[in-house]
Amino acid sequence: MRRFVLASALLASALSSPLLASSLIDNVNGVALDDKGKLVSFDALVIGDDGKVEKLLKGKDKRPERPTFKLDGKGRTLLPGMIDGHGHVMGLGLSLLTLDLSDTRSLAEVQAKITAYARENAGRKWIIGTGWNQELWGLGRFPTATELDAAVSDIPVWLERVDGHAGWANSAAMKAAGITVATKVPAGGRFEMVGGKPSGVFVDAAQALIERVVPPPAPKDRDLAFAKAQARLLSYGITAIADMGTSMDDWQTFRRSGDRGALRVRIMAYASGIENMIAIAGPEPTPWLYDDRLRLGGVKLYLDGALGSRGAWLKADYSDAPGQRGLPLTGSTQLRNQMSRAAMDNFQIAVHAIGDQANAEILDAIDEIADTYKGDRRWRVEHAQIVDPVDLPRFAQHGTIASMQPVHEASDWRMATARMGEARLKGAYAWRTMLDNKVPLAFGSDVPVESANPFPGIAVAITREDAKGEPFGGWMPQQRIRLEEALAAFTQGAAYAGFAEKRFGTLTPGQQADFILVDRDITLARPADIRETQVIETWVGGKRAYVKGTEQ
Q: Residues with Cβ < 8 Å from 99, sequence gap 6 or more?
């Protein structure tokens, strides 16, 4: 009897005890999205010992009285962690270790920067760089090996274009690769030619001819590159990213970080082709590793190149290059065979398609195989930039996801108009139409092609204007979307696109407590001010992963 009385007293005491929790984030201007994509507000966030959200609290809701940790948010705005639906993690990291040409605005500036880099890094056997974009230089053409020789001629130089779909070599690099007038252009590639000879720019599959002789980074360099990439992502409030084109070397780098307990950002990996898919994951997608921080669940395939290098596959000739329609990088039968090979083992399929013909082709392929491979497949079309208006409604079929990058529209609208003419761009960067057609929309950045910072992307999505506010009123403004829709695409939508919506992407109870504190309320800010949003803190799994001005 005494034991029963004692147990009853203990139970009553427990029920009347103050609410306990591991962490309380209080005094915040909380902004989240409900399951219908509507904005919801809250004042405090309770995080359990497992790093997951326990509840969102409003003004008079009872707070835990003895949390093991409490943070006073000082009224700052708290948002769900941003998810980059399409990026290249190691591409970002390696770009931070090599020559960055993304800020150059003339050929002379590029040459001066390369010369200075070579002088500051004397003794290197190769100079590797990224980020050049001839569209910003006013050349009206691609650069040449001769112009690169004027900067550095004694050692090989290989510079990847900003979109990753072309590379620029000097004469020493071409000699090292054995490139001559007699060299055959590989299928799916193109040489830029001057005077009947390869001029130094290699497009899409032709890049492999140079890349095969470029010294690969050592594992320690890869580890350093990943650490830099992760720090950069977290500083922008990115708590998860879809890594599009993961190689075995990339995967091993992520695993080494995870094994050391240093993996903070969440990575939804998509293997670079079928061979890497099999080598990394074997007979089925990997499980989630390191507390939901790493999984390989799909494969990335390429159907065409990029618009800037005229590699995007079009239905008609380029307006500024008659006779050219771009490059189908994968044949029709090969594409379907690769998709079937992945689908039979339940890997998700993500296909790069930029041009209108490429988008039509992938939609045709999905139509053909969807009845064979049933279930929740979530076919992904990466970029979906230039779509024939007659094909836009087809994205709604079979649950196909449009994985798009708003910043591309701001960077490309002038170039796209020159490449195709405005009359053929009615289905370009068609975010509003996608949503109106009930197409799942995931937003990302394509980093390092563009900055991983999601806030300029949100600003572009709701204005269709670039950083200078051009064109005034937006380019094809009928395709603008609302703030809450853009925020959803950078959170819920990107998580859904990676089969992760039950684990993270919102701040609903039971999900991972991934969130950021920022310096302004983006729901009240002007679009130009949204673009300038600064991340103060980034939290992943209920733990601080970044504080502005320091590293955790």
A: 113, 114, 117, 127, 128, 129, 130, 159
pLDDT in tens, 107-118: 999 999 999 999
Q: Which residues of 16-30 are buried (b: 16+ CB within 10 A; e: fewer)?
A: eeeeebbbbbbebbb
Per-residue DSSP letter, 287 = P
> What is d(CA 495, CA 222) in angstroms, rounded to the nearest whole number?
26
Nearest to 329 by CA among 362, 302, 355, 361: 302
Q: Which two structure tokens, joined as six digits, stand for 229?
A: 């990439």
Helical (H) or strand (E) element with 230: helix 219-235
As a whole number of angstroms, the distance between CA 356 and CA 102 comes to: 27
Q: Quick one: which of 240, 303, 295 has its CA closest to 442?
A: 240
User: Residue 459 class from Cβ within 10 Å (0-12 exposed, 13-18 middle, 19+ buried)?
Assistant: buried
How many helices and strands in the chain, by DSSP H and E? 17, 25
Could you give the CA distance from residue 308 to residue 294 in angstroms, rounded to a whole number?
Answer: 32
- How would you classify the pairing of strands 127-132 and 157-161? parallel
Q: Which is it for the CA torsion 531, 534, 539, 545, positive or negative?
A: positive
Most confident of 11-25, 33-47, 92-106, 223-237: 223-237
Residue type, 156: P
- Most distant CA pair in the chain: distance in Å? 102
